[in-house]
Structures are given as structure tokens and as C-alpha cells.
Amino acid sequence: MTRKKNPAAELPEVSVSDDGEVRHLHLGTPWIQGSMRIAAPFDLELEYVQRMMAWLLFVPPQSVAKRHAMQLGLGAGAITKFCRKKLRMCCTVVELNPRVEAVCRAWFKLPPDGPMQRVVLADAAQEIQKPEWRGMVDALAVDLYDHQAAAPVLDSAEFYADCRALLTEDGCLTVNLFGRSSSYERSVEQLATAFGEDALWAFKPTREGNTVVLAQRTPTRPKRAELQARAEALQERWGLPAPKWLRVFKPVA
């Protein structure tokens, strides 16, 4: 979940803690940067990470395995592992800190790279500007924080425009807006500049203060009954609490 401009030698140390049931990733501070239930390493432990899967409400379940997921910020690898192991998707991750990748391999059951999964060690802002990624991503998850978890590291209209350019026509971005110094209103304004207000959906904040916002490449307004049917299918097929999402997930405009 980290992007820093410092040289690699100055990147924060990566550490792990657990209580015997849940394992946590830390970047030089007590702040939790990702979690995994040890007995269920490919499930999504944190509520906000589950909500990052809300793009599934906008696509037919039978098409999911044919899609490409990209994550900016590896964290504890939860989204990547879920997309690869549960959804059977092709996955790409962009992560700046090689220590995060190493710890995810050793302690968080991140599968090895292969034809269906790749970790790219790079600066996310620069990597996503490469022409090879444009129009190639169906589900883009952005969870980029420094080791202090103060505010999103990349949060400009220009950055979100680059994210939009990655997406397929029915692709979606989900972004975690969290931080002691972050501004939800400012972030939504930047997203609206890049995507348009009618493309944005948002959850109410979690108890921990994480607010997940979804942006569609092509805005749609599915009927309530269609969303309800999709949510029930997601819960039955992949164990996601999607029916509960619909009580706290609404269009921004």
C-alpha cells in the first residue's frame, strides 16, 4: 500500500504481527497496512477490502474470470490473492517497495508469478502511464498510502485521469480514501474531474474510517432489482457480504 519518492534504501522496514488468528502487515509503524486470517489466507479479512470488490456488482458473474484486475499498492496481497485464487482472474500488481513483495511471499501466501499473475516493482504514477496498459484493465484497485497512513499518496485529477485511461469500456476503479490528513470531499472532486460526477458511487465510511469510492469508465445506473440480484449472487458464489453493501452504497450525484 506504499508509494514513496525516496530511494529504495530509505523505504520503510516491513514487519509482521499476528494474534494466532489474524496476521498483519506493518511498514515501520503500528499502523496496519493489510491483514490475513491465517486459516483462510485467500479470503478478504478487512471490511473495506471486501468493499473494494464492489465493481462485481456491475458485471455479469460469468464474465469475471475473463477479466484483468490491477492493484496499485500490494499491501498484504489480499485483493490480488482473492482475484487470482477465488475469481480466477488475470492479475497485475504495481508495488514500489520490494520488501513488501518479499514479505507477502513469505508470510501472506502470495502465489508465485506466472502467466496469470505478475508483480511489477515500479512507481505507480509512472507505470500506469505506459501505453501497454491503456484500455487493458477491467478492475483497478487503488490503495496507496505512506507508512504513516496519513492520506492517499496519489490523489490528483491527473492521476485519476491516468487511471481512467487504463480501464476497458465497462471497467471500474475502486479507491480507498482513508487517512488522518485526507479530505473525502477533495478526493471526490478530483475523481469527478477525471471521470464525471455521474460515474461515481461511494460507500459510507467503515468503523475504522475507510471510505471506498467506485468510478465507472462508462457511467451506468442499474435498477435496484438488478443490483440486488447481483449482490445475492456474489454472496452465494464468493462469500462476499454484497447484499449488505446496498444499504451503504449509493451514487455520489
What does this structure look like?
It is a single chain. This protein is of the alpha/beta class and 253 residues long. The protein has a single domain, classed as Rossmann fold (3-Layer(aba) Sandwich). Helices cover 27% and strands 24% of the residues. Strands 6-5-4-7-8-10-9-11 form an eight-stranded mixed sheet, sandwiched between helices. A three-stranded antiparallel sheet has the order 1-2-3, with no helix packed on it. Helix 5 (157-166) links the parallel strand 7 and strand 8. The chain is globular, with a radius of gyration of 17 Å.
What are its keywords?
single chain, 253 residues, alpha/beta, Rossmann fold, 8-stranded mixed β-sheet, 3-stranded antiparallel β-sheet, 11 strands, 27% helix, 24% strand, globular, disordered N terminus
What's the architecture, going by CATH? 3-Layer(aba) Sandwich
SS summary, helix count: 8
- Secondary-structure-derived class: alpha/beta
Provide mean pLDDT, rounded. 91
Q: Which runs of at least 5 residues are low in confidence (pLDDT < 50)? A: 1-7
Major sheet: size, sense and barrel closure?
Answer: 8 strands, mixed
